[in-house]
Design goal:
541 residues, mainly alpha, Rossmann fold, Serine Threonine Protein Phosphatase 5, Tetratricopeptide repeat, DNA Cyclobutane Dipyrimidine Photolyase, subunit A, domain 3, five-stranded parallel sheet, globular
C-alpha cells in the first residue's frame, strides 16, 4: 500500500495529453513529492477478446483494424506519459472489477476519468462511482470528449434533445470554455506509486491478445495515436484555403491515394485529438481568412454535427434500435440474410458498391459519400435490408466507429429519422461515375475488374462476352451478376417506404410489431401480381 495521496487516472477514450482536464486534475496534489498518479487503461475482453465466430478477424465487437488502431494509440500515449515522468499501467479484465481492486490496493484518494455518454460506459461508471463514493474517494469526471455537455443542451430544450441541426445550433451557441485558453501541454506528471499486487503489463500486441498475424493484402494506412493526430491536424490546417473552402457533402468519394477529407475522425473517436482543440484551431484560422464556409457544411460545422448526434443519442432511449425508439420510423425491413452477406462481403455485382465495401474491410475507413452510397443501397435504395444490420457491419469494421454517430447516420441514411426524402436515392452506377469516369477506384479495390474497359466498369454485366473474355473477367464466374436490377429494386423500395410512412402517419408513430407484420404481408402480396405480369410479358415476348 502506498503512502501519500494517490490519484487514479482511468483512460478509456481521451487517449491524449493535450486538453485532458481529467488528467490535469489527477496530477494536481497538495504536495507534488508525496503525490502519486496511476494512469490506467483496462484491456476489456468485451471489446478485445478474439471471436472466432465473427465474420471478420477481431473480437465480437470490433474488427482487427480498430483494435490495432487502439493499441497504436495506447503505445503512443505510453511514450508521451514516459516523457513526462510517468507511464501507462495496462491491466486486463472486466473494467469495473479491475478498477475497484486498484482503488483498494493503491489507497486512491482521487478517481479521474473523462465523462462518456455511451450506454456501455454509463453502466460501468455507475458501478465504479458507487464504490468510490462509499469509500470516500473524490470523483472528477469532466465533459471533454465533445464541445458541449449533451445534458446541458437537453436541459435548455425542456428535457428533450433537439431533433434538427439548426435548433441544436441555436440552443448551443458558443461553448462556454472557448472564452479562456485550453491547457494544451503539461510539463511533468507525478510519479507512479507502488502498484502492489495488481497485475500490470505493457501495451499488448495483437498477437499477445490472441490474434493470428493477418494475411490481408492491404492494411489500414492510418496509424493510431495523439502524435499522429496532431501531425494530421497541423497538415490540414496549413492548407488555409482548403479549410476555409471546405464544404461537406462535397468532396470526391473515389479519392483514395489522397483522401478528400482530413481523416481525423478515428482520432476524434478515440480522443487522440481533442475536438475542443480542433475547434479552437479552426476558429483561429477563420479569423485570418477573408471568407470561409459556415455550418452545416464547414469543417467546424462537422464538429458541431458530431455534438448534435451525441446529444440526440444521449437523450433518446433505444437510440440504437428501431423498436421502442420514438424518433425512428417503424418500417417492415426484409430479413434477407443472403442479400446482407452479399453486401457485407462485396459480392453485390455492382462494382461501385463492392469496391467501397472492400475498402471498408481493408482500411476500416471510407469517404463519407461512399458510406452514404452503400448505406442507401442496403436499406431504402435497393435491398430493403434493416439499417440495424448495416449499422452492425459498420460498427465492427470502421476504425472511427462511434456509437452515437454511426447509429445517427444509419437512422438518417435509411430515412428512418432526421431525413425523410426517401425518393432521393444514390445510383450504384451513375453516382461513382460522376467522380471517377475511368473507374480507377474500382480497379484498385477490385483487381478482378482491372482490365474491364471504362465503358463497362460500372455495369460489367452489360459487356459483350468477347469483351469479358478479353478483360479476363466473366460475369457470373469471376465476378458476380447483380443481386438485383437497380431500376425495379429502387422502384419497389420507394413503394414500400411510401406504405410504411403512410402507416406511421395513420398510427401517429405508435406502430406495433403486429402492424408491421401485416404491412410486410400486404407488400409481398402486392408484389406477386407484378412479378407474374412480368413473367407473362416475357413469355408473350
Amino acid at each position: 500500500m502506498s503512502s501519500g495521496s494517490g490519484s487514479l487516472m482511468w483512460f478509456r477514450k481521451g487517449l491524449r495529453i493535450h486538453d485532458n482536464p481529467a488528467l490535469e486534475y489527477a496530477s494536481k496534489g497538495s504536495n507534488f513529492l508525496s503525490n502519486f498518479l496511476y494512469p490506467v487503461f483496462v484491456v476489456d475482453p468485451h471489446y478485445m477478446k478474439p471471436d472466432p465466430e465473427a465474420f471478420s478477424p477481431g473480437s465480437s465487437k470490433a474488427g482487427l483494424n480498430r483494435i490495432q488502431f487502439l493499441l497504436e494509440s495506447l503505445r503512443d500515449l505510453d511514450l508521451n506519459l514516459k516523457r513526462l515522468g510517468s507511464r501507462l499501467l495496462v491491466l486486463k479484465g472486466e473494467p469495473s472489477e479491475v478498477l475497484i481492486r486498484c482503488l483498494k490496493e493503491w489507497d486512491v484518494k482521487k478517481l479521474c476519468f473523462e465523462y462518456d455518454t455511451e450506454p456501455y460506459y454509463q453502466a460501468l461508471d455507475v458501478k465504479v462511482k458507487s464504490h468510490a463514493s462509499t469509500a470516500g474517494i473524490e470523483i472528477y469526471s469532466p465533459v471533454s470528449h465533445t464541445l458541449f455537455n449533451p445534458a446541458d443542451i437537453i436541459r435548455k430544450n425542456g428535457g428533450k434533445p433537439p431533433l434538427s441541426y439548426q435548433s441544436f445550433l441555436k440552443l448551443a451557441g458558443e461553448p462556454s470554455w472557448a472564452s479562456s485558453p485550453l491547457s494544451i501541454t503539461l510539463s511533468s506528471l507525478p510519479p507512479v506509486g507502488n502498484t502492489g499486487n495488481c497485475n500490470i503489463s505493457e501495451v499488448p500486441t495483437v498477437e499477445e491478445l490472441g490474434y493470428e498475424e493477418t494475411q490481408q493484402d492491404e492494411l489500414s494506412p492510418f496509424r493510431g495515436g495523439e502524435t499522429e493526430a496532431l501531425k494530421r491536424l497541423r497538415e490540414s490546417i496549413e492548407n488555409k484555403e482548403w479549410v476555409a473552402k471546405f464544404e461537406k457533402p462535397k468532396g470526391d468519394p473515389s479519392a483514395f491515394l489522397k483522401p478528400a477529407t482530413t481523416v481525423l475522425s478515428p482520432y476524434l473517436k478515440f480522443g487522440c485529438l481533442s475536438s475542443r482543440y480542433f475547434y479552437i484551431c479552426l476558429k483561429d484560422l477563420y479569423k485570418n481568412v477573408k471568407t470561409h464556409t459556415v455550418p452545416p457544411v464547414s469543417l467546424a460545422g462537422q464538429l458541431l454535427w458530431r455534438d448534435f448526434f451525441y446529444t440526440v443519442a444521449f437523450g433518446t432511449p433505444s437510440f440504437d434500435r428501431m423498436r421502442g425508439n420514438k424518433i425512428c420510423k417503424q418500417i417492415p425491413w426484409n430479413d434477407d440474410d443472403e442479400l446482407l452477406v452479399a453486401w457485407r462481403e462485396a459480392r453485390t455485382g455492382f462494382p461501385w458498391i463492392d469496391a467501397i465495401m472492400t475498402q471498408l474491410r481493408m482500411w476500416g475507413w471510407m469517404h463519407h459519400l461512399a458510406r452514404h452510397c452503400v448505406a442507401c443501397f442496403l436499406t431504402r435504395g435497393d435491398l430493403f435490408v434493416h439499417w440495424e444490420k448495416g449499422r452492425d457491419v459498420f460498427e465492427r469494421l470502421l476504425i472511427d466507429s462511434d456509437w452515437a454517430i454511426n447509429n445517427g447516420n444509419w437512422l438518417w441514411l435509411s430515412c428512418s429519422s432526421f431525413f425523410y426524402q426517401y425518393n432521393r436515392i444514390y445510383s450504384p452506377i451513375s453516382f461513382g461515375k460522376k467522380y471517377d469516369p475511368n473507374g480507377d477506384y474500382i480497379r484498385h479495390f477490385l483487381p478482378v475488374l482491372k482490365d474491364m474497359p471504362k465503358e463497362y466498369i460500372y455495369e460489367p454485366w452489360t459487356a459483350p462476352l468477347s469483351i469479358q473474355n478479353k478483360a479476363k473477367c466473366i460475369i457470373g464466374r469471376d465476378y458476380p451478376k447483380p443481386v438485383v436490377a437497380h431500376d425495379s429494386a429502387s422502384k419497389d423500395c420507394r413503394r414500400r417506404m411510401a406504405e410504411a410512412y403512410a402507416l406511421n402517419q395513420k398510427m401517429s408513430g405508435m406502430v406495433s410489431a403486429e402492424d408491421l407484420r401485416n404491412l410486410r404481408r400486404k407488400l409481398e402480396e402486392d408484389k406477386k401480381p407484378e412479378v407474374e405480369n412480368k413473367r407473362q410479358r416475357k413469355l408473350i415476348g
